[in-house]
Amino acid sequence: MSETKSTCPYCGVGCGVLIQTEGDRITGVRGDPSHPANFGRLCTKGSTLHLTASPAIAQQARLLAPALRPARGETPRPIGWNEALDLAADRFARVIAEDGPDAVGFYLSGQLLTEDYYVFNKLAKGLVGTNNLDTNSRLCMSSAVAGYKKTLGADAPPACYDDVKDAGCLFIAGSNTAWAHPIFFRRIEEAKRANPAMKIVVVDPRRTDTCEIADLHLALQPGSDVMLFHGLLHVMLHEGWTDTAFIDAHTQGFEALRETVRDCAPERVAEVCGLAVDDIVQAARLFATGGSGDAAQRAPTLSLYCMGLNQSSHGTDKNAALINLHLATGQIGQPGAGPFSLTGQPNAMGGREVGGLSNLLPAHRDMANADHRAEVAAFWGVPAIPATPGLSAIEMFRAAAEGQVRALWIACTNPAQSMPDQALVRRALERCEFVVLQEAFATTATAAFADLLLPATTWGEKDGTVTNSERRISRVRPAVAAPGEARHDWAIAADFGQRLQSRLALQALAPAVPALTAYDTPEQVWNEHRATTRGRDLDITGLSYVLLDELGPQQWPMPEGQAAGTARLYQDGVFATPDGRARFSPEPWRPLAEARDADWPYSLNTGRLRDQWHGMSRTGTLGRLFGHVAEPALQMAPQDMAREGLAAGDLVEVASRRGSAVLPVQPDATLAPAQTFLAMHWGEEFLGGRDAQGREMTGVNGLTTPTFCPTSKQPELKHAAVRIRRAALPWTLLGIAWLPADRALAVRQALREAARDLRFVSCVPFGDEGAGGGEGGVLLRAAADAPPPAALVDRIEALLGLGDGQALRYADPARGHRRAVRLQRDGELAHVRAVLLAGDTRAEGWLKTLIQDRLPAQDFGRRLLSYQATPPVAVVSRGKTVCNCFGVAEQDIAGHLAACDGSEAARLAGLQQALRCGTNCGSCVPELRRMVRETPVRLHRQAA
Question: Which GO terms describe its cellular component (predicted)?
């Protein structure tokens, strides 16, 4: 076995990993103890990376050769790389010749490496001459970019991870850090243990797991963040908690902001935000004084924020209003203080560094700045960079839907799942004349719309760099060779660029310069990127691949001659503005762009699950990662469910002005009345069906709105006005089976396709691939207005392995009922291998437990075909998996806690010692803490 140092491809924490290989196979992964982002820790997602790289998954999920779709709706056929890239170059050149460079667009991903981003950016803006290059980071971090630039002058998070241990107050706004950035949350827990006096404020409409560590939770109404932050400043001014000396010496524009917040008294803020006045005053005191309670002895305050602020029609205002508080109290440029935006994706920061947004240029240069355009044009050796900013993500797909963008190149992202307003996105993909998808996985929703599919490398195969949330650049190194014919993303873009340049030159449509994208290695690309940063705020001229190998990951800036990277910015009080003074933003609070009303009475919020990532093209291949949240469900406040007459598990139709989805509803006491929650991951790959008019339902983003912030152009993914009604679908189906691991994923896809015309379809994996046995589980759930044709149920039975006459079987064709069970004998024992319940699924609970928990079933006989909701013999489910590392389930924990005495801390420690849960990655610790708190202490009778 050998080990290769690399970086995790999931969130913006940027954890270092050691990839273990044997020959040409990845066999394991562990955290890199020397990496300063995680010091050896990995979360549930990172610790299962090696399982997503298994040959079984590659065989079923990976795109392994270029493929061309002869016509829309037809099956792609494999072609060679030369044919693929020549065809792409011909089609793009023709569109450019006929309609100009702005008739093409490039849509990229925050999961690309910096080198990949750089080549694409140069290709679009330098060669093609269009600024129509945007990225899914537009959906993630563009409001943070705009907020930093508006106030501090540059897109540069000023703080670092180490600041957590120095903070007197942590102010966490719009971030479920415990789930979205779990390894960073471990640092927060450690800091709180080391300094119990530290105060933690969490601002979030939901009571998430992050709130388990909070001293104060502000459960504000969606969209009211700016009002809250202005109200906090109003209190600070009234109490004399601002830092007048800092304001006078280092800022400008404070008087305009003072006028804005004059009307934001606590009583008005409480009404708008749905908060208590006392909580608003307490939050202002904690923020302004860093928890010390005395502005004269102010302790540091560090704010942490993410999508709750960014994904908003007023995202820039939210970011800037929070930064206002730091500037007004001098809480910036010192250990433990500052506004710290937590990047969502692994390299959204790197993409921003090279100019990977439609309004940016390399090294944080602005498209709108003529001097910046001239600098880049001179550096690249082209006559000019187009002056007009390109189309942002929403605008690009809208333009494609309207026929203005005729050719679209999509790399490493899945807009047919992740973009809001899927009806618009799919119109765009269908109308666009030529869609190229450059992707590692063939199973994404977007793949079905691509004319040309190009296989790209992914984690464990790639070579380059990424930048994490704290501006730290890490190396990504390959541990194994690329499978099949997959190529690196930068290499695909470079090859395509050279072919396109030759075609455009023949038509005098390209600058007469040497090949702009002629690179042989990622290091050549990185060195060119490095040169663009000289003298800029992110100067990395002191870095190289060699130094990163020798010194380890480094934070920018690190100019030439500097021995190490820079941990904190603005320590001298000089900001990245023309006069060195930070700017206050006086923008007033504005209500939500899409308000709730009598027709649309609920607010839909979206967010992450603990163990899943984005559209789940990678994590969704592992049943193990579905143990914590097994299936899609709409979360709803219990009192709202009661008012609507709904019970847990009932199917509901949730509809917005753009589309609808049918799925089960579950009570969630963390939600306030009129608020609902649906995880962002559930796209058509896992949740589908057709609405009452026969239109395809596309999951969560069939509901969300494309309305975006006018400054950042980031869409409002955190709120959509919806209505919820019971879905009267009397015919239901449940199919569940254990299958060979090398077929499970393909069967799941086939099941989803077979059932796609029913009103509701959910199809997910289950099981622990790391437990051995070479098996994977698949669970299909469906519903319809009436029994479908028998041939459909026959097809589902066959896919589940129930169609060969070896299963126990019962059928009532007149009622549309069918039940089938397959048993497998292992010596004296028999276990259920597959189940189909169609037309009546009341026996689901115990049959599903029998198969998922592999419980003995030899004593049940034909009773396995029972309708009964209760089993003929006691069958106890272990419940959901709380600790993924050690497979510890809900009932295991409940059973232990029922016999425990002592304080909450003592019971938690005893639980961890007995069951090991929460002792590895720690992702489950907040939930364990909540379970301990909610379990009554056992009372002992005293001996007589």
Answer: membrane; oxidoreductase complex
Banded pLDDT at 899 (limits 50, 70, 90) = confident
Q: What angle, rounded to 10 degrees, do the helices at 890-897 and 904-915 form?
A: 130
Continuous segment of H or E residues that includes residue 397: helix 393-401
Q: Which two tokens mark 68?
A: 């061309």
DSSP summary character for residue 620: G
Instruction: Tell me how far CA of residue 484 lies from CA of 58, 61, 476, 620, 828, in angstroms.
Output: 10, 13, 21, 22, 44
What are the residues facing 677 on neighbouring strands?
A: 605, 635
Pairwise CA distance, residues 449 & 433, whole Å: 11
Q: pLDDT per residue over 661-679, tens digit each?
A: 999 999 999 999 999 999 9
Residue 632's alpha-carbon distances to 657, 666, 680, 881, in angstroms, are: 21, 10, 10, 16
| H-helix or E-strand spanning residue 267 | helix 266-273
Neighbours of 480 (CB within 10 A): 16
What ranges in 65-169 are assigned the alpha helix state H? 81-99, 114-122, 142-151, 163-166
Q: Which domains does the chain have, with CATH numbers?
A: 67-140+347-517 (3.40.50.740), 142-341 (3.40.228.10), 602-726 (2.40.40.20), 731-865 (no CATH), 881-934 (1.10.10)
pTM for this prediction: 0.96
Does residue 557 have a cis peptide bond before it, meaning omega lies within 30 degrees of 0? yes
Give the contacts of 170 (CB within 8 A, at least 6 positions apart).
164, 188, 191, 198, 199, 200, 201, 301, 302, 303, 304
Is 941's pLDDT higher than 70?
no
Pairing status of strand 472-476 against strand 554-555 = antiparallel
Task: Answer for the pair 640, 674: CB distance below 8 angstroms, yes or no.
Answer: yes
Helix (H, G, I), strand (E, B) or coil at 44: coil
Residue 814, Cβ density class (10 Å: 0-12 exposed, 13-18 middle, ≥19 buried): exposed
- CA 419, CA 659: separation in Å to the nearest integer? 14
Q: CB of 720 within 8 A of CB of 603?
A: yes
pLDDT at 276 > cutoff 60: yes
The whole-chain average pLDDT of the chain stands at 95
Of 316, 478, 427, 360, whose CA–CA distance to 108 is shortest? Answer: 360
- The pLDDT tens digits of the residues spanning 363-412 come to 999 999 999 999 999 999 999 999 999 999 999 999 999 999 999 999 99
731-740 and 829-838 strand pairing:
antiparallel
Cross-strand bridge partners of residue 29? 19
SS3 452: strand
CA distances, 845 to each of 23, 766, 837 (Å):
44, 15, 11
Which residues are paired to 778 by β-bridges? 737, 765
